[in-house]
Write a structure and sequence with these properties.
Layout (H helix, E strand, L loop, with lengths): L10 H19 L3 H9 L2 H6 L11 H11 L1
Helix pairs in contact: 1-2, 1-4
C-alpha cells in the first residue's frame, strides 16, 4: 500500500530534501550549512516546495537546487 502525500503529511519528506539542497548551496557558495539552510528556507523555491499542490516535492535534490538557482 502506498501512502498519499497531502499538505498535512508533506513535512515528513521535506527535511531530507531541504538538507540535500542546503548542502549544495553551502558548497557552491562557500558558506556554513546553517547559513545555507537559512537561505534556502527564505527562498521562493522553498515557499513553492512546502505547498503540496505545486508538486515540487517530486523533484530530487539536484533539480530543486537548479530551481533555487533559477529563482534566486
Amino acid at each position: 500500500m502506498r501512502a498519499e502525500i497531502t499538505q498535512q503529511n508533506l513535512y515528513l519528506i521535506l527535511a531530507g530534501k531541504v538538507a540535500a539542497v542546503a548542502a549544495f548551496i553551502a558548497e557552491s557558495e562557500n558558506i556554513s550549512p546553517l547559513d545555507a539552510l537559512t537561505k534556502f528556507y527564505a527562498s521562493n523555491t522553498y515557499r513553492r516546495l512546502e505547498r503540496e499542490e505545486t508538486k515540487l516535492w517530486h523533484y530530487g535534490p539536484v533539480a530543486l537546487y537548479e530551481e533555487y538557482l533559477i529563482s534566486a
